[in-house]
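$ run holo --ligand "guanosine-5'-monophosphate" --emit tokens
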Amino acid sequence: MVREKIRGNLIVISGPSGCGKGTICSELLKNNPDLFLNISMTTREPREGEVDKKDYYFISKEEFEKRIKEDKFLEYATVHYGNYYGTPKDEVEKKLAKGIDVILEIDIQGALKVNNSMPEGIFIFIMPPSMRELKRRLIKRNTETKEQIIDRFKKAYQEINEVNKYNYIVINDDINRAVDKIEAIIKAEKCRVNRIEDFDLNTKEEMIHELLTEDLKDYNK
Ligand code: 5GP
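-- output --
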């Protein structure tokens, strides 16, 4: 028998603010209900329409820092304006052990930390088609102040240099095309040779002999 590993893949999707990773992940999930999009914890205030335990686990700074001390995060970072964001370790591990592929949609600092602790993950960098387009998207989404847009834009410029630490780059020029590419990556990763757990094709001579005589005894050509 040729058996595949039961463990799920950890798929880390990240990229600079405004690259469209959030939209890509929600589209990806619509078409692939078997994937699990991990829910992060954050100390930032919920935005209008955001739901606790669905968009994020919204917790206090004290609670977050208590969890850091208890080593409950796979990674955490202060992403924007002193707010903590982190990936709870237990939930990810449970899903992977059950054979479920887990998506982490996290920032670049977080992705690099996960790369250190779980290098077997699949690291996908979402690249905007141009910096001009990134600036346009940051302005269009209308969720940040002018200063915040400037900060995010400057940070994006530095973050793009980290792309070489990833396994894949997906240019988000068209959302459907970007999602298609990520689906193709996820499928291809399932076919890696190192995912074969049990390559139990018995090559012992007696076995070869037995298999051949079994089926060839009445074959007369
Ligand atoms: P937002 O406040 O706009 O929801 O998210 C801000 C940034 O934090 C985004 O780039 C998002 O990908 C990132 N982020 C969300 N969850 C996590 C997490 O668990 N860890 C890290 N490192 N970044 C996260």
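-- notes --
The pocket of guanosine-5'-monophosphate is lined by residues 17, 40, 44, 75, 77, 79-80, 85-87, 105-107, 109-110 (CB under 6 Å).
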